[in-house]
TrEMBL record:
GO cellular component: cytosol
Domain HTH lysR-type: 1-58
Protein name: LysR family transcriptional regulator
Source organism: Comamonas serinivorans
Database matches in InterPro entries: HTH-type_LysR_regulators (IPR050950), LysR_HTH_N (IPR000847), LysR_subst-bd (IPR005119), WH-like_DNA-bd_sf (IPR036388), WH_DNA-bd_sf (IPR036390)
Length: 299
């Protein structure tokens, strides 16, 4: 089986249709269909069921997918080790992180790291924590900065970066700002919130459940970073959730933390890598630099 076809199989498992997968991979749908046809011919079975709603992986497809991930990861590890022998100070570091960490935490570290390792190259992706860990497990990135999940991920190793402080906010000139001092004061306010399934949304809803209060109405929910909605919060009476550090930065200007009790949360950010994967020397050095910065700089 071709290694490119195995990469295509992994991508197909992550998208609802051939069209969406082809767009992500930057290939034509015809080329992707041929790759899938080759795999199904070699497997002697249908790997994906096609319907008007899209594609769905079969049991045989799941079996091949499991091995495809192992093979493509082994190839990546081989290329990494060969590259290590050529140069211990160069190489590509594939990093994925929460969006708000790039300007405030990662970019300053890149500036320092580049002075020591000018030949290092970086590929940086941003997404929210559930997608980050999936990308790492699938071998698409080498290092991930994400909130520590409640569920275990036995194939991943991790180390703590520190606590991220997130607070409930409103625009500084919100007409009821000084009155919003308890959870009971918030139940009739409209909110901008993360999607369900994201840690912050779970924390938010549990606060009201423990207080035996109804959930407030949601005006906007999104899988994007909450920082994407700071302009909306400044221009409306909606409430939202923002990392406290950003209130003193340009994107947080015009916003204020709510003054009441139980209106902030802390969660543990970790650096993750594959426990049995091979990190290049320069990737290991950058991981250690991340951990050192986590001890010295606020998240």
């Amino acid at each position: 089986m071709r290694i490119d076809d195995l990469h295509a199989l992994i991508a197909l498992s992550q998208h609802p249709s051939l069209h969406a997968t082809a767009h992500t991979l930057g290939v034509t749908q015809s080329a992707l269909s041929k790759a899938l046809a080759r795999l199904e011919a070699q497997a002697g079975a249908t790997l994906f069921e096609r319907s008007s709603q899209g594609i769905a992986i079969t049991a045989m497809g799941e079996t091949l997918l499991r091995h495809a991930r192992q093979v493509t990861q082994a190839m990546h590890d081989l290329e990494t080790e060969l590259g290590d022998e050529r140069s211990a100070k160069a190489g590509l570091i594939r990093l994925a992180a929460l969006p708000h960490l790039v300007p405030s935490f990662i970019t300053p570290l890149l500036a320092e790291f580049h002075l020591k390792r000018p030949m290092a190259r970086f590929s940086i992706r941003t997404m929210l924590s559930p997608q980050l860990l999936i990308h790492l497990e699938d071998g698409l990135v080498d290092l991930v900065i994400a909130a520590k999940p409640e569920a275990s991920h036995p194939g991943l190793a991790n180390a703590s970066l520190g606590l991220l402080d997130v607070c409930m906010v409103a625009r500084a000139r919100h007409p009821r700002l000084t009155q919003l001092r308890s959870l009971g004061d918030l139940v009739h306010e409209r909110w901008v919130l993360p999607d369900r399934g994201i840690y912050l949304r779970h924390w938010f809803e549990q606060l009201f459940a423990r207080a035996d209060l109804p959930l407030p109405p949601v005006a906007v929910e999104s899988s994007h970073s909450q920082l994407a909605f700071t302009h909306l919060l400044r221009q409306s009476d909606l409430l939202g959730l923002v990392p406290r550090q950003h209130l003193s930065q340009p994107e947080g200007q015009g916003l204020a933390a709510l003054p009441g009790v139980d209106m902030a949360a802390q969660y543990d950010l970790h650096v993750f890598w594959r426990a049995k994967g091979v990190l290049s020397p320069v990737a290991r050095e950058f991981r250690d630099a991340l951990l050192a910065r986590g001890q010295d700089a606020p998240l």
